[in-house]
Amino acid sequence: xxxxxxxxLSTEQLEIIHNGSLxxxxxxxxxxxxxxxxxxxxxxxxxxxxxxxHATIPRDLVEEALKRAPKTIPYCARNPKNDLxxxxxxxxxxxxxxxACITDWETGERRASTNDDLARWTRVADxxxxxxxxxxxxxxxxxxxxxxxxxxxxxxxxxxxxxVEGEALDARDARYQVEIAxxxxxxVEQLKKRPIFSAIQCPISPLTYDKGITEGAIEFGKYGxxxxxxxxxxASETAPATLxxxxxxxxxxxxxxxxxxxxxxxxxxxxYGSAAAIANLKTGxxxxxxxxxxxxHMALAQLVERYKLPCELCSGNSDCKVPDAQAGFERxxxxxxxxxxxxxxxxxxxxxxxxxxxxSPELLVIDNEIIAAIRRLARGFEVxxxxxxxxxxxxxxxxxxxLGQKHTLEHYKQEFWLxxxxxxxxxxxxxxxxxxxMAEVARDKVHEILATHKPEPLSDSAEEEISRILxxxxxxxxxxxQS
Length: 483
Fold this sequence. Notes:
Blueprint: H1 11-28, E1 30-32, H2 35-44, E2 47-49, E3 54-56, H3 59-68, E4 73-75, E5 84-86, E6 92-95, E7 101-103, E8 110-112, H4 115-127, E9 133-135, H5 148-159, E10 163-166, H6 171-185, H7 188-193, E11 197-201, E12 208-209, H8 211-222, E13 227-229, E14 234-235, H9 243-264, E15 270-274, E16 277-280, E17 285-287, H10 291-307, E18 311-314, H11 325-341, E19 346-350, E20 352-353, E21 358-359, H12 361-379, H13 385-388, H14 390-396, H15 406-415, H16 427-432, H17 438-452, H18 460-478
Parallel strand pairs: 1-12, 6-19, 9-10, 10-11, 11-13, 13-15, 14-16, 15-18, 18-19
Antiparallel strand pairs: 1-3, 2-3, 4-5, 7-8, 16-17, 20-21
Helix pairs in contact: 1-9, 2-9, 3-9, 4-5, 5-6, 6-8, 6-18, 8-9, 9-10, 10-11, 11-12, 12-17
């Protein structure tokens, strides 16, 4: 299969960025707010200033961490048919972001999200064939704040049979998540063999590591739960205004975090990730729907190909506020360039609008279609005697028609992408069907999915045990007994 591929940095330029990142770690260093992580770095051989919560990392520690990190990672699911292997042979897609807003299922108006919204959102994602794993993409604000994370984690596990991505705010939160997942999969040892969830860990750009999130990631490593290092530097605010400088910051944050996690738990499954973007200098806000963001991620994809690490990049969201033309062209730009790079195992951001400040059910369905089309583009085509079709061209000859040929019937389905939502009819036929916009068609599809699709529920015994875990967590986190 001849696949289109895009690279733009030379080998020499990649080495310059890599060495620049190592110089940042050796000279500038990182700020680490976790005593546990500082102890790990100190024991590994980093120079640590406990009073200043600061460490500098020699390059040999980075090289050792890169050797220890697994080059392939299983992303298992409670239904084995949805198991994935991150090995750079295929790019998978997931939802993304964790906002507290959703566009209403009926009106399209933006409002605060609830646990029921998250459950329904997850069911839609579970149905879509180009959403391969599910990030818990909404905050259930109708749940007390200390319990929002665990409640959301359980809601997603209940409503999808696919791999789940989440996040933990501290080691205690991580232990509860491990206990819940182990209950579903059949114990901690089984979870280590078949990790049905993974966790996002975001450093604080530039070059800072929070106590709770860092210690949660270390805790996950003990149980073989994959951790996605996910820096979010913004060019001109938390990274230099130059794209090369932003790439260096994002890369240095990944490598430093990798050192912490691999020296804490050698061989821990870790993904190289990034949601780096540019800042909108008019507002100071995160702005993912830009050509500069696409270039940053293209460069990072080349770097991670050098490191041979599993990789997740946030290339699916945009600055659009509704499912409109802006949503389409920004997603097409960032997803296409990411897919053409190759080597990216997971792309997230599906269904997100307004720089991941809200989620749109309609756009989630539209994104499924956009991804299908771009995946077809990235697949390329075969060049051989059969596909050249010289004998068929000769048989049909000038002024002939190929439609009735057996060769056409054999090949058109595998060669041509057949859309599910996009309208390819004539104008008159479109009018007869109601002259619906893509957003209206997508909303109808969302309602159809919710009416007909029901993932396999958790077992009764798992539900009983999870209820006990949540009750115990609620008593601990809310500081009172729950009836």
